[in-house]
Amino acid sequence: MNIVVLVKQVPDSGSERKLDSSDNTVARASADNVINEMDEYAIEEALTVKESQGGEVTVLTVGPGSATDAIRKALSMGADKAVHVTDDAVHGSCAVQTSAVIAAALQQLEYDLVLCGAESTDGQVSVMPALLSERLGIPHLSGARKLTVEGTTVRVERQTDGGYWMLESSLPAIVSTWDTINEPRYPSFKGIMAAKKKPVETKSLADLGVDPASVGLATATSRVLDFAGRPPKGEGVKVADEGDGAEKLVGYLAAQKLV
Amino acid sequence: MPVRRLVPTQEAADLLELTRDLARSELAPRVVQAEASETFPREVFRTLGRAGLLGLPYDESVGGGGQPYEVYLQVLEEIAAVWASVGVGVSVHGLSCFGLATVGTPEQQRWLPEMLAGELLGAYCLSEPHAGSDPAAMRTRAVRDGDEYVLTGEKAWTTHGGQADFYKVMARTSDHRSRGISCFLVPGDAPGLSADPAEHKMGLTGSTTATMRFEGVRIPAERRLGEEGQGLPIALAGLDAGRLGIAAVATGLAQGALDDAVAYAKERETFGKPIIDHQGLGFLLADMAAAVETSRAMTLHAARLKDAGLPYGQQASIAKLVATDNAMKVTTDAVQVLGGFGYTRDFPVERYMREAKVMQIFEGTNQIQRLVISRALATGVTGATTVLGAPQPALVS
């Protein structure tokens, strides 16, 4: 069972995040960059499947040089090797373009299962697994809260607001995971030391056979035109309780469509 | 903890990030409840152990992390900044393995991997109710009986007393005051070994401290570390390393107090502006920051001497003295910054202050540290020593 986990380095959602005012792309150089939180659940799931079924876990990332930090974290958790696609031409790519790059990289790998987080905390476009499924011609099982593999079949519980769906497909397939699926392990110091010796292959667009002109901000299918900071918090609403406090509260919540 | 650090390797930087992760996600959510209810967080030590944080300064060949003290102490500091009791516990555990690692025979060192693997927790027994600063006055005896020793006596102030899986124990094998003491490694489940009810302490209430009773505890003779009579030098050598551990813990505690005080002073307003912008308070915070950085610098300086294989006992004592006195001052001032709120148990700074106090007392009182320092001044060689360490690219963590 060979598993490829898609990993993305993103600005820490707990710190102040910015867009670069020159081209409205995510300011990565100045940010406190971390592994996308949701990806840690995908890595954990891959390691769990590997522990019961054997095989190898490969981490695949597209990103600038600094993305090696995210790769190292994944390797120290226990992944076996990594592929780092890095090329200046990728800067500013939209999801559609990026999916072409990732698909090209996946085609150079052997995989039975591709796992990824259901969303990244920076772009939150959340379409990557669907795009890859289309490009690779493999089934896409999205939003998993539970995953089991038996022979060449993968079964998934897809989390929904009201419950869950049972999904099943043949392998190879791509599955995106929510944070309800497991509890990611911490790396251990032994894992950190072992990660130093694990192979990390760096690939350019040329290595993947992707035309640099087909990616990047200039030909992106979507781009950020303008942005503004979050408006300052308004004054809260005060409800005076004149015997009907609960009613007023419920009325407010209902008006805001919160209940 | 927003501290700018220089560490020698990428793995040290990753290790510190792992430590901060663990501190934030595993320690921080538990500290308040455990300290308030005086509960020893045994499971937290297992979590740290599984992550490999309980054997960092020991050689990889015996299951340790092979990290220099310079790195190990910064890990300890990050832990203590969130939970001082756990920082002390990690330091004590490390110290409980020190004798075996430094004087144990290769045959005895077969026990080390298990002790360093993280599932087990150690303690050490040196002080007695009447013999703290003067350990050579100890009375606990170990009497040879064939292939065994029989230990009888009591050991006071044992951190992890009753919780530990093994105890490093100093006991008298002859009447010679200083050369009549030997070192033993006693399993926690040895018949005749028991713990008194835990002490009710002013602080570090999440760390169990108890008197251990030895009532005819029989252990195989092979569990003696070093030669008969070598125990006190082993204990004192361990204390030098242990003092660095406490200096790092005190530095972390003070950093935690500073962070809380600064956060509060930026938010709290009086006379129309945040109190950090009032010079009186701003300068108080500045002095606190200067104290914390001073503690860290001294601690890491002593650590680097140790890592280079140079004598460092005097510097370890200075680090312990400076860092713990600074921690007392910084935590007291943190209470001042928070004013009336700081004096309540709804905020953690009064706890920091209670925790700092014992650091001036244990691992050699600060009066004993001054004794060590002044004796080194009286007897030490004069003249400068400069050692060139192998230059390494510094990494920021």
UniProtKB/TrEMBL annotation, chain A:
Obligatory cofactor(s)? FAD
Q: Which UniProt keywords apply?
A: Electron transport, Transport
- Which Pfam families does UniProt cross-reference here? ETF
Recorded GO cellular component terms are: cytosol
Domain annotation Electron transfer flavoprotein alpha/beta-subunit N-terminal: ranges: 23-212
> Can you name one GO molecular function term for this protein?
electron transfer activity
Please indicate which superkingdom the organism of origin belongs to.
Answer: Bacteria
Against CDD domains, the record matches this protein to: ETF_beta (cd01714)
Q: Which family does it belong to?
A: Belongs to the ETF beta-subunit/FixA family.
Q: What is this protein for, i.e. what is its function?
A: The electron transfer flavoprotein serves as a specific electron acceptor for other dehydrogenases. It transfers the electrons to the main respiratory chain via ETF-ubiquinone oxidoreductase (ETF dehydrogenase).
**What is known about its subunit structure?**
Heterodimer of an alpha and a beta subunit.
Task: Supply the PANTHER family for this chain.
Answer: ELECTRON TRANSFER FLAVOPROTEIN BETA-SUBUNIT, ELECTRON TRANSFER FLAVOPROTEIN SUBUNIT BETA
Q: What is this protein called?
A: Electron transfer flavoprotein subunit beta
Give the taxonomic lineage as stored in the record: Bacteria, Bacillati, Actinomycetota, Actinomycetes, Geodermatophilales
TrEMBL record, chain B:
Q: Which residues form the Acyl-CoA dehydrogenase/oxidase C-terminal domain?
A: 229-377
Note the Gene3D superfamilies from the entry.
Acyl-CoA dehydrogenase/oxidase, N-terminal domain, Butyryl-CoA Dehydrogenase, subunit A, domain 2, Butyryl-CoA Dehydrogenase, subunit A, domain 3
Question: What Pfam families does this protein map onto?
Answer: Acyl-CoA_dh_1, Acyl-CoA_dh_M, Acyl-CoA_dh_N
Taxonomically, which superkingdom?
A: Bacteria
Cofactor(s) the protein requires to work: FAD
Q: Which SUPFAM superfamilies match?
A: Acyl-CoA dehydrogenase C-terminal domain-like (SSF47203), Acyl-CoA dehydrogenase NM domain-like (SSF56645)
Cite the InterPro entries for this sequence.
Acyl-CoA_DH_CS (IPR006089), Acyl-CoA_Oxase/DH_mid-dom (IPR006091), Acyl-CoA_Oxase/DH_mid-dom_sf (IPR046373), AcylCo_DH-like_C (IPR036250), AcylCo_DH/oxidase_C (IPR009075), AcylCoA_DH/ox_N (IPR013786), AcylCoA_DH/ox_N_sf (IPR037069), AcylCoA_DH/oxidase_NM_dom_sf (IPR009100)
Domain Acyl-CoA dehydrogenase/oxidase N-terminal residue range list:
9-119
Which residue range or ranges hold the Acyl-CoA oxidase/dehydrogenase middle domain? 123-217
Q: Which UniProt keywords apply?
A: FAD, Flavoprotein, Oxidoreductase
Which GO MF term does the entry hold, naming one?
flavin adenine dinucleotide binding
Q: Which family does it belong to?
A: Belongs to the acyl-CoA dehydrogenase family.
Protein name (database record): Acyl-CoA dehydrogenase
Q: Which organism is it from?
A: Goekera deserti
